[in-house]
Design a protein that fits this description.
Layout: E1 5-14, E2 18-22, E3 28-48, E4 52-56, H1 60-63, H2 70-79, E5 87-93, H3 104-120, H4 127-136, H5 140-144, E6 149-153, E7 157-158, E8 167-173, H6 180-187, H7 205-214, H8 220-226, H9 229-238, E9 243-248, E10 255-259, H10 262-275, E11 280-286
Helix pairs in contact: 2-3, 2-4, 3-4, 6-8
Domain GHMP kinase C-terminal: 216-273
GO biological process, one term: isopentenyl diphosphate biosynthetic process, methylerythritol 4-phosphate pathway
Function: Catalyzes the phosphorylation of the position 2 hydroxy group of 4-diphosphocytidyl-2C-methyl-D-erythritol.
Length: 287
Amino acid sequence: MNSPLTEWAPAKVNLTLRVLGRRHDGYHELDSVVAFAGSGDKLALEPGDALTLSVTGPTAVAAGEGGENLVLKAARKLAERVENLRTGHFTLDKRLPVAAGLGGGSSDAAAALRLLARLNEIALDDGRLYSAAVATGADVPVCMEPRARVMRGIGDRLSRPLDLAPMPALLVNPGVAVATGAVFKKLHASTTIGTPALIAEDLTPSGLQVFIDREPNDLEAPAVAIQPIIAETIAAISGLAGCQIARMSGSGATCFGIFASGSLAASAAQVLRTARPDWWITATTLR
């Protein structure tokens, strides 16, 4: 098998995000309903003797090609667990904004693990893949099988897939990066771990929609305090025709709007691009 293998690395969107408290090890316990977009990066793997990476695409410079890139980290973590792991040269077509609350690097890493699993004939439910995903980063496990679900703990406890109807959406990044650590520091989470009001995976599709409408992103306010343009972005999305919800994803700065239809989301994207040509804007569907 010498021809390049390819995988899609879709954006991860936190539809809700509750911070339930800080653990004794310093990490935060989370409860988040996540979905995946039709927008993302593309990763290819050409089998070879050496593990290498090149990055192309409009956001390539921000992503970087060095050892800190999560694609290489994921490959190395799997190589620690699988003897004689075959690797090769990865080419990442980077299109998602970086440090943007879309889990782009984590999704890229998960795509790398899926590619290596295919190359080495490793089943996707092999425990070594999950172990490598956890070791790579908190958001990587949920990206391994990109379907809507609830992620808990530090991202290592996942629900079964949710019965979420496809949601027409707009993703908007105002061109600023927000450091996750700075947002959590601003939050000042308590040391007491709470309990979410409802278990989202037990809800019907209509009940799940109500749950998403009601549950906030606890990191939105501290992120706005660091980058006030996030509030401006949410307000701009809210004012577009057909917008039902406007919220920030993850620790920011990307925000999303849920729309009544795909055509309204597409029209909203055109309107907002005209008003803010310097922003990253894409109409998509969340599933």
